[in-house]
Amino acid sequence: MDLLNNLALGFQTSLSLANLGYAFLGALLGTLIGVLPGLGPIATIAMLLPSMYSLEPTSALIMLAGIFYGAQYGGSTTAILINVPGEASSVVTALDGYQMARKGRAGTALAVSALGSFFAGTIGTMVVAAFAPPLAALAFEFGAPEYCALMFLGLVGAVVLASGSLDKALAMVVLGLLLGQVNTDVITAVPRFSFDIPELMDGINFVIIAMGVFSFGEIIANLGKPPEHREVFVKNVTGLWPSKKDFKEASPAAVRGTLIGCLLGVLPGAGPILASFTSYSLEKKLAKHPEEFGKGAIQGVAAPEAANNSGAQTAFIPMLTLGIPTSAIMALMIGAMTLMGIQPGPQVISSNPSLFWGLITSMWVGNLMLVILNLPLIGIWVKLLTVPYRFLFPAIMAFCAIGVYSLSNSTFDVYCTAMFAVIGYVFHKLGFEPAPLILGFILGPMMEENLRRSLLMSRGDWTIFITRPIAAIMIAVAVVLMAAIALPIIRKKREEVFVEEE
Amino acid sequence: MKIRSQKDFVSGIALIAVGAIFAIGATNYSFGSSIRPGPGYFPFGLGIILSILGLSILLGAFTAKSKDGDPIGAIPWRALICIVGALVFFGYFLPRLGFLISFPIMIAITSAGGSEFTWKDALLNAFILTALSYAIFIHGLQLSIPLWPA
Fold it and tell me: Is the full-model pTM beyond 0.90?
């Protein structure tokens, strides 16, 4: 019963009154800052880190965990309420969450998101406690070809996200990959597509594209409709709490999302993001009514939110056991640990067990605080939606404009957002859906790096992707998935052709 | 041949063009070979793929099944210009005039994008949102935003 002993040791640390207080404070600050567009978990942690130097390490890390979850949940809140995904993994939440909000079910969406996240966080905590070493070994099995294959699978999955034409979804993925090419080449350090603009050499910030194509494109489109048709949100908001039927539909989705999140979260790079996209695709495939996805399906909120949260949990495994950060946030957490005199790595478990297990359990406590804090807040968030649109859209604009500027205190980012607002509106007009573009954009640079590494490894032989078993399985799944998407469309087209000829 | 989907026709042409621009742009960087791929390898391939997808969408525009020609429809110039204009205004004037002057004007320009625009609402929005943003971002979060004209 090592596991129970370990967890008990952890809870002794994290359940002290002071530490509970820090967890609550962290979750509160994280949520409040996280709901401001453009200020995601990274910005929030970076902003609050200096004020935590004086705390003792365990308390500081517990508070950090609270901030992390709070900010992440704040990002999902804005994704649901105003279609502004605060961070990459809540892009998927925006798809169905925002549509639920438009139908007057914002409260249900927020509650499902909070409860799904909490459930996923609980399972995630146990997985971390029980399987940290073997899961870390899994991540070691992944070389460049495996990552490349996994990302290919993720991109194929992204096509499933779109409910419109297959051609257009594919084009959006490729366009996203191309936008991700605006950067400095990681292998040769050559700046690409930067037109000698220094700001472009680091690439375009994800928030700029997401804000431009999601929020501003949407605002322009709404304003283009005559006011009587605009009715962005249903006025009478019904039932803040999910109904029995909602629970029945959402629970299995949340369970599957949690499992996917636990597995994919371990992978450095894009774990939680891929997890949320993958679980959404899976739910859409499994659903009895796949046509409801994109129009406010509750499973489309529950699954990715659970996946994203359990993924965030297991993302701590490589960090804690190997000292490898899996994302920018993890890197910040490692930075915070180092500042406090703790060297992350395998030795933390043995040299400082109360800190290690305290941190793991505090993840769970952070999650719990989030639920306690946010369920009452839901009523307030939903009230915001009853503000008439002529006051709401300038407010969204105001917070987005400051958020974008504060990304790197640069007006260049504001201009970029203006450009993506136009592009976002063009997408809207021409019937392109932006979600696959975002995934392509995020995965592009990682996929390229791994593709080129793989080709270097194999001396230019593309069969490396099918001779290595793990990579081969993922490629095979991607091909099957692709065929599954393409076949019904081809069949439908042929039927149409035949009907016309008769 | 008759264009049956105006949307797909325009989309196809735009995608072919964007793909071509990226592919041509990529020729500025060393292409390398499959054994040692250079910085131009990946974007060149992607640009070509995007153009092919664009071509497929373009061809589809002639065979689409829509009856009304799937028109792009009217563009809400007022909203488009006001929203984009407000962002550009904010970007240009924030460092020059400072937050307290450029921000309320940006909000007023934004408000003008709505079809139910009234001066009263615009001024109300500008006043309330400036006060709120000041309290949250500058007072509360201490973001370094220039306040007054430089």
Answer: no
